[in-house]
Amino acid sequence: MINAENSVLRFGYAVSLYEEVSGVTMSQLDALALFFPGLIVRERTDSEKTDAEFNEHDCVIEASAVNGKLYTGNDGKVRQLTGRLYGTAKGNREKERKNAELIRRRMTRDLCSDEQRTVQLKEHIQMLLSRLNDVQRERFEDVLLEYIVFLAAGRAEMSAYEKDAEAFPMDDEVFDGVVWNAAYQLARWNEEGTAAAYLWLLLGSLLRNEAGRLVRLYDSSFLQVYGQRGGETDLLSRLEYLFSPQEFEYTYDGDDLGRRFPGIEWFCDRCGDHLNEQEGFDDHLPVWKCTRCGYPNKLDYSAVFDSREQLRDGEPADKQKMAEALRKRRQKD
Ligand SMILES: [Zn+2]
């Protein structure tokens, strides 16, 4: 099933894996609407056979549904546009190439500005996969694994020229991030992991280099990497911290002062689950056993990191400065 041509990350191919296993075949418009509801295609309320159109203002494709299927119509432009998102259409139709790029950017921005939307998308994919029966589900996990291995192996054999010559080239860093996240999630061998794995492949193949923003912002399970603490996430603050850590001051303006670690979000060191949301979680405990995977996570300052880089370098956040920020915050009340 997988040949050399398909070892390239393409949205159309990622979709065909689902089609093959489920037995459902879809038009390009229908697939975009099915996997990313409301994000790329907006359904018109009429049920007339009106050609689909690209709405430049909102950067979405508007289409009418006829007998439950979206109607592309005779407008070659929308066909060219979806073809570009799919990775099938080539040629020199500059306007449609540009519009595809605009859709990618707008969609990435939407997904980066609202973690909830991304989590909902993952749940949506999980819901779609839950329609598969046990045999199909197992088969789907197999084809995903096969695809991931072919993607990685195929990429390793591509020359820099071949990578750049793709219609929408992807940087190695982005490609590797997407495929790694998919692999990591698939290796959990459960429904949520399979859904997350498939979503990474769908998003990576569709958004191309724009997916780099998602890779940087989210961990493989689409949770934001570490809690955002007030005042520290803007670029200037981060630069300040980077270049003069001794002068950097934490500030805190949250309202959850009843907690031992106000403003800190905890994630399981093993499975990445958001511990704050687990039932019964209390940050006054010295250790919290993850209710999803059972891993005992230490809850103390030595496990609080300001950034992924600090986590990697094993440099926890400054306990004194954090305590000082909380003291100032408490005084304000
Ligand atoms: Zn866990």
Comma- or semicolon-separated keywords:
333 residues, two-stranded antiparallel ribbon, single chain, 4-stranded mixed β-sheet, 13 helices, alpha+beta, 6 strands, binds zinc ion
Which structural class do you get from the secondary structure elements? alpha+beta
Helix and strand element order: HHEEEEHHHHHHHHHEEHH
Instruction: Give start-end ranges of low-pLDDT stretches.
Output: 226-232
Average pLDDT confidence is 84
The percentage of residues in β strands lies in 5-15%
The end-to-end span amounts to 64 Å
What is the CA-atom radius of gyration, in angstroms? 22 Å
Shape: globular
Helix content: 40-55%
Bound molecules: zinc ion
Number of strands: 6
Sheet with the most strands, sense and barrel status: 4 strands, mixed
Number of spatially distinct domains: 2
Number of helices: 13
Plain-language structure description:
The protein has 333 residues and is of the alpha+beta class. It has two domains: 214 residues, no CATH class; 98 residues, no CATH class. Helix content is 49%, strand content 7%. The protein is built from 13 helices and six strands. Strands 1, 2, 3 and 4 form a four-stranded mixed sheet that branches. It has a two-stranded antiparallel sheet with strand order 5-6. A hairpin with a 6-residue loop joins β5 and β6. Bound molecules: zinc ion (ZN). Zinc ion binds next to loops. The site of zinc ion has 8 residues, from loops.
